[in-house]
# Entry
Amino acid sequence: MGSSRSISTTDGVNMLPGIKRRTLAYNDDVMLCLFELEKGAKIPLHDHPPSQIGYVISGHVRFIGATDADGFEAKAGDSYVIDPNVPHGGEALESSVFVEVFSPSRAEYRDF
# Structure
């Protein structure tokens, strides 16, 4: 059996104003994170090598891309995929909670 981590019991990391992340579990191949955003919180445009798959538990988020055509909105019950190295960011239109899976895992999010 490969290296794995158990579910985090930490309170999470305040990444940016109004944005909290909890790394729940990971191994080298995949990572599960929970994000909580306050209404109006903004995720700056960025990109990363891991694939990203998300599911919105509650709220409403507008995702932005490198162009207006690359953006989309996701509400409670919606899921989405962001391919590797694709510029993206976002804004919480409502207080929102969502889970995201990254593959491979993101070394900078391994905080437990």
Notes: The two ends are 20 Å apart (CA to CA). Residues 4 and 27 are 5 Å apart (CA to CA).
